[in-house]
Amino acid sequence: MGEFRVPKSHPRYWSLYYRHKIEEAMEKGILAKAGPIAHGRGEAFDYLIGEKTIEPAERAMRAAVAKLLLAKHPVLSVNGNVAALVPKETIELAKALNSKLEINLFYRTEERVRAIEEELRKYDPDIELLGINPTRRIPGLEHERGKVDEEGIWKADVVVVPLEDGDRTEALVAMGKFVITIDLNPLSRSARMADITVVDNIIRAYPRMTELAREMKDHSREELLKIVEGYDNGKTLGDVLTHMKNRLEELAKEGIWRRAEL
Ligand code: ATP
Ligand code: MG
Q: Which CATH architecture has domain 55-240?
């Protein structure tokens, strides 16, 4: 497998580093062919928000963590892109939240499920992983795309479906699940359909959510409920769009030609 040889001094080091992770995941059979396309779309939106966690995302993460801590049966869904970028961070977040992990794929093949399982087990060989033998189906989705684990997403009250297809997000909402997504594109169907949308790169979002989970786990139920009830996803999405618009306007005014940093 190709080594990552870009020097740390490269101005786009991290972007290239994560692209390499995507390439590696492709070679390991973790990623579907569409995986790199989704990654590229995410990168484009990351440029627009400024490649940092913006305030509306922080607000969404706080509400998401509060909801997950209140949940009876929280589940984090893992797909190929998630396993490629944040395998260790996904396990850490699941542990901090006391949440189940389910491998759940849009383009499900048994080989990919096994490759993802193997990747996650590198970080914790004993971790409980659902979605290996799913026996239930999300109503309204055709066969492979709809498979879910009886003990996981099927039973869940709160599910996190990061980097997810919009149609599946909508089907989960229609099932009555409380759906949280992480999606850099605030205009995607997933972003628009979810109950809570974290518009941030999962690379930044998952470690931050783990921090928040550790910080908030001793909050009372009342405090957590207050955070969830005070949260407005429509406003958050609007604030993300406004952030992008303002940022582009400022950049246009300041000028970007031959500017090293944005
Ligand atoms: P939709 O079906 O929801 O309208 P889509 O077809 O663009 O949107 P998919 O390709 O099904 O979405 O899912 C991938 C989504 O994940 C995209 O919206 C993309 O912007 C986002 N994404 C990709 N990489 C990341 C990342 N590292 N962090 C957060 N979001 C990401
Ligand atoms: Mg889609």
A: 3-Layer(aba) Sandwich (3.40)
Q: For the chain, what are the domain ranges?
A: 55-240
| Interatomic CA distance for residues 6 and 13, integer angstroms | 7
Per residue in 120-166, pLDDT tens? 999 999 999 999 999 999 999 987 889 999 999 999 999 999 999 99
Closest protein CA for atom 14 of ligand 1 = 163
Burial class (CB in 10 A: 0-12, 13-18, 19+), 145: middle
Is the CB of 119 inside a 6 Å radius of any atom of ligand 1? no
Q: Where would I find the H helices in the chain?
A: 13-28, 35-49, 55-70, 80-85, 87-97, 110-123, 143-146, 166-174, 189-193, 202-216, 221-229, 233-254
pTM of the full structure: 0.97
Closest C-alpha residue for ligand 1 atom 26: 201
Contact 243, 56 (CB under 8 A): yes
